[in-house]
Write a structure and sequence with these properties.
single chain; 12 helices; about 260 residues; about 40% helix; binds adenosine-5'-triphosphate; 4-stranded antiparallel sheet; alpha/beta
Length: about 260
């Protein structure tokens, strides 16, 4: 579905990312684990087209996209939930959601965009309750859900999430991870960049460990989670919490309606 081959990119003379090769197959979660400064956000910029790559290729569904502008990649089905949510604080919740569909409005049509907005409010009832409120007035967890909803408004095939658990309380982190797992069940392919190695590898199908801009280790997520080297370096990072089963069941039910209307 999404395939990077030997991607090199950076800001100055020295590349930050060196010969990164990774893949996310259809309907799976690939976790990209790395400490602060490993290059996760740089990779997100390269994938969205905000930062040009110096070498390598990016393929989406077999077609090369590394030469495409950000909005063209979005319309091809590659959407990002950026680090730190980056919601538009003074715009309302509903306006933030609509912005997510901006690049695909013509392709999807007004009726589909309106339907997607209704689906997001069904998926995230607390956003529906606050649809007219400025996004800046939401809690951190609600802003994270809004950022995810905004990305889903482009009806993506591949969703990248850059540190979605950052700064959230453990119970909310569990909610976010539960949501990501359910999105995969709905057929989305997901690239999950995280410092929280334990919880990411627990829900992922495959994993990549990014160290100072190179993929130091990769493999099935379960094998990485059991790897003593990964455990020593990464599994202490981030808290763990299980989602409340009742909350999880309610979420699954809502997602089922959204993803299979
Ligand atoms: P974090 O969790 O702190 O965001 P990260 O894994 O996302 O870490 P990046 O933000 O991609 O890491 O940073 C990787 C490296 O690139 C770091 O050494 C950082 O200082 C450098 N870097 C990031 N953004 C820029 C920039 N705009 N200009 C120059 N160097 C940058």
């Amino acid at each position: 579905m999404l395939e990077l081959d030997e991607v090199t990119a950076g800001y100055g003379a020295t590349p930050v990312l060196r010969e990164i090769s990774l893949r996310v197959d259809s309907g799976e979660i690939a976790a990209l684990i790395g400490a602060n400064g490993a290059g996760k956000t740089t990779l997100a910029r390269v994938l969205t087209g905000l930062l040009p790559l110096r070498a390598g290729t990016i393929r989406l569904d077999g077609a090369r996209i590394e030469h495409l502008a950000p909005d063209a990649r979005l319309s091809r089905g590659l959407a990002l939930v950026p680090e730190g949510r980056q919601v538009f604080a003074t715009l309302s919740v509903a306006e933030n959601l609509r912005l997510g569909a901006q690049a695909v409005r013509r392709r999807l049509g007004a009726a589909r965009v309106a339907a997607l907005e209704a689906e997001m409010f069904a998926l995230f009832p607390m956003l529906a309750e606050r649809r007219a409120s400025p996004a800046g007035a939401l809690s951190g967890g609600q802003q994270q859900m809004l950022a995810i909803g905004r990305a889903l408004m482009s009806a993506p095939a591949v969703l990248m999430l850059d540190e979605p658990s950052l700064g959230l309380a453990p119970l909310l982190v569990a909610d976010v991870f539960a949501l990501i797992g359910r999105l995969r069940e709905g057929g989305l392919s997901i690239l999950l960049s995280e410092q929280n190695a334990r919880q990411s590898l627990a829900i992922a199908d495959r994993g990549y460990v990014l160290e100072r801009g190179v993929v130091a280790l990769s493999g099935p997520a379960r094998a990485l989670a059991d790897d003593p080297g990964v455990a020593a370096r990464y599994l202490g990072l981030g808290g763990t919490a299980r989602a409340d089963p009742a909350r999880e069941a309610a979420l699954t039910e809502r997602l089922r309606c959204v993803l299979h209307p």
